[in-house]
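Customer escalation, tier 2.

The customer says the design service returned an amino acid string that "doesn't look like it belongs to this structure." They asked us to rerun it and document both sides in this ticket. The original structure tokens are below, unchanged.
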């Protein structure tokens, strides 16, 4: 079991590395190629929309063929996306660059299911640790992605970042080689039964998990997407923004080594609440100043808050469905979560260009209040049921 979890960890790391590298480059390239600077985050928005759109087709592939063929398709999509991004940079074509976000987003959407595969290979007692451990694959991604950007951004002058995308296209190939050794449970029988998607979505555990996940990912993406642009406007170079994104990514995935243990010891509600508090702290730090330290500390705290909230939401989701219902529940959840992420990616560039950095930060706070309200609602509902019992 643990060997399979570590293989999934490595696959997650390779797929995530391309995404972390893209987070460094996308808004900067969009800002340089787009005539309307409010569209600088459009490639990220398209990528997140494709990630959302991948949820239902991915669930169908996983249900019919199993996890491994689905993950291979995701790796092929990620590779096609990197090559199309490279073509957009080569031709200086903003439209072509945006088109590359579609297969890249589809690949990223399918890669989100590595955490679900971890929950399926693990025993119930080990499940929180397995989920958080696979998500810590982002640590390798955080180390690898930005460093690849720094090392390869100028290797094919005068085309900035062209060499980076060609290197990123090789990572999915390594992932597919590792998938040859992965063994996961077969998909549930097509006549296995279970509730419909609509019935699953009405369960309190599902509602709370989905809302928490969308707030965690949406608020993080809203701030992270525009950070490289804000840093550029403050006079920082690509290397500085890459380092800040690297700090952010390490903070996102590093806690995975112990988040599962925190959930086991203190409960999901306490960990999610701590994550919301950390995200609010990020807003406060971001409003205090725009030095390198402010950007680095704020995004580090933001990454930690995201980890607590998102890992907690994933564990909540695992309690909201039976084994026969898992693919339907996971597809519905990721459609909601990444639909929200796509909206925040669209909004990030527009709000930043029109209203400024301070308003962008303050926009996070109402969403955090919503997530905390949902957690309190489920906790109160559970307490009433326990008292009635």
């Amino acid at each position: 079991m643990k060997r399979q979890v570590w293989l999934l960890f490595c696959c997650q790391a390779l797929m995530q590395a391309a995404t972390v590298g893209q987070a460094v480059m996308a808004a900067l390239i969009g800002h340089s190629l787009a005539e309307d600077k409010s569209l600088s985050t459009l490639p990220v928005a398209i990528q997140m929309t494709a990630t959302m759109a991948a949820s239902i087709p991915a669930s169908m592939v996983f249900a019919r063929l199993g996890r491994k063929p689905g993950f291979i398709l995701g790796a092929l999509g990620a590779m096609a996306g990197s090559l199309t991004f490279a073509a957009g940079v080569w031709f200086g074509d903003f439209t072509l660059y945006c088109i590359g976000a579609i297969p890249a987003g589809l690949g990223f959407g399918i890669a989100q299911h590595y955490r679900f595969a971890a929950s399926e290979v693990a025993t119930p007692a080990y499940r929180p640790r397995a989920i958080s451990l696979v998500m810590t694959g982002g640590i390798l991604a955080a180390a690898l992605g930005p460093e690849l950007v720094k090392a390869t951004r100028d290797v094919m002058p005068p085309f900035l970042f062209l060499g980076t995308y060609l290197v990123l296209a090789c990572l999915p190939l390594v992932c597919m080689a590792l998938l040859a050794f992965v063994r996961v449970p077969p998909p549930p029988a097509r006549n296995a039964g279970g509730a419909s998607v609509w019935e699953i979505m009405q369960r309190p555990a599902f509602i709370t998990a989905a809302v928490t996940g969308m707030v965690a990912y949406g608020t993080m993406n809203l701030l992270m997407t525009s950070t490289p642009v804000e840093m550029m406007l403050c006079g920082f170079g690509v290397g500085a923004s890459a380092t800040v994104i690297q700090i952010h990514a390490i903070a996102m995935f590093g806690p995975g080594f112990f988040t599962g243990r925190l959930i086991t010891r203190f409960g999901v509600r306490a960990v999610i609440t701590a994550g919301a508090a950390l995200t609010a702290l990020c807003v406060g730090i971001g409003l205090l100043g725009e030095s390198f330290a402010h950007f680095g500390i704020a995004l580090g705290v933001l990454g930690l808050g995201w980890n607590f909230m998102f890992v907690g939401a994933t564990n909540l989701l695992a309690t909201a469905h039976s084994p026969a219902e898992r693919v339907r529940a996971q597809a519905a959840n990721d459609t909601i979560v990444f639909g929200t992420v796509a909206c925040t990616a669209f909004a990030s560039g527009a709000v930043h260009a029109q209203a400024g950095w301070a308003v962008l930060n303050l926009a996070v706070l109402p969403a955090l209040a919503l997530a905390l309200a949902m957690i309190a609602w489920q906790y109160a509902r559970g307490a009433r049921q326990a008292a009635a019992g």
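Tier 2 assessment: The sequence is consistent with the input. The mean pLDDT is 87. The CA atoms of residues 122 and 168 lie 30 Å apart. Sent an explanation to the customer and offered a walkthrough call.
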